[in-house]
Description:
Elements: E1 4-10, H1 12-23, E2 30-32, E3 45-50, H2 54-62, H3 64-67, E4 78-82, H4 87-103, E5 106-113, H5 116-119, H6 132-161, E6 170-176, H7 179-190, E7 194-199, H8 202-205, H9 213-220, E8 225-229, E9 242-247, H10 251-264, E10 269-275, H11 284-301, E11 305-311, H12 317-328, E12 332-337, H13 342-347, H14 351-356, E13 363-367
Parallel strand pairs: 4-5, 4-7, 5-6, 7-8, 9-10, 9-12, 10-11, 12-13
Antiparallel strand pairs: 1-3, 2-3, 8-13
Helix pairs in contact: 2-10, 7-9
Amino acid sequence: MSRLITVAIHTYEKALALRAMLENENIKVTLNNVNLEAPGLASGVRVRIPEEDLPLALRIIENRELFASAAPASASHNILVPVDLSPNSFKAACVACSIAARRNASITLLYSYIDPYIAGNIQFTDSLTYEIGESGARKQIEDSAGKLLESFSQRLRDAMINGDVPTVELSHTVVEGVPEDAIVEYGKVNTPRLIVMGTRASDRKESDMIGSVTAEVLDEGRFTVLTVPEPVETATSLSPRNILFFSNLNQDDILAIDTLYRIFGDKTASVTIVHIPQKRRFSDSSADKALRRLSEFCRNNFSHYHFVTVPVSQADGVKEFAELDEANHFDLIVVPNRKRNAFSRLFKPGLAHKILFHTDIPMLIIPV
């Protein structure tokens, strides 16, 4: 039988509410230490679940406002692919199709355009007039954007017909606005399971570290994002075999690994867990012990993956990463992402952030 572990200790009333929430997501729950003579007065009730359900249970507990609603399917079975009609965005769309086919999801292509009449300089001291000619021009711009995206979508459908990419349900939408704002607003309304974005090569990423669309999407929204850099050789799919995972040594790591496993866990892979120490948080011995415990838990619960742990020093992290990459040839980097503002990214970039902007390896960024 599966080992039971305690995820919370509550009063009886709160324990019942948590049990109902977890059982609604098909997690078996056992309550212990209940005062059967007066259950309404019972305190210290342990809520226990099978160990293999811990990642999902933690995600539910951390996001109670999503799972407590009457409609449990708050996240859609849809993958969003923002496109700029470039060859790299077509590559990103092909990768998204391969993931969607494995996960029984649909694809939505999103293309945004900027209205030059709105984006141009406007004299706010004058009244804003709406000319018939401008109306026709706006309609023409919108129609042109729709035709461009339809042509892009047809190329993807042709690839499906030819067997180059898996056949999945495909839709597309055109919106007016700045790309990063359009992606965030669409994501907030439609809650896609994953966003797949094509990104620039590393020699171009650094120059727009603050202004890149991907960075803005990560900062403004709480979405799981997969980036597909320009130099990636894959044409139609992404099946990582050597994965680098940046660990924070807290329960967020379990949530992030669970998300990774749900996306790419259908095939075997080697996962190297790297911890970058933070000052005054962990001693070397406690960090090593926490890494071993995390690795042991992962080996017991994510059967398709082989886990190894590597501590990385703060001082020589970039050099050690380069040596690790040369030895392992990582094909995916996974980063649990906490929301950071543009000021922090510019003046206090973390080591992982520095490494990410200097590589051409696909990245899976998971909000925690």
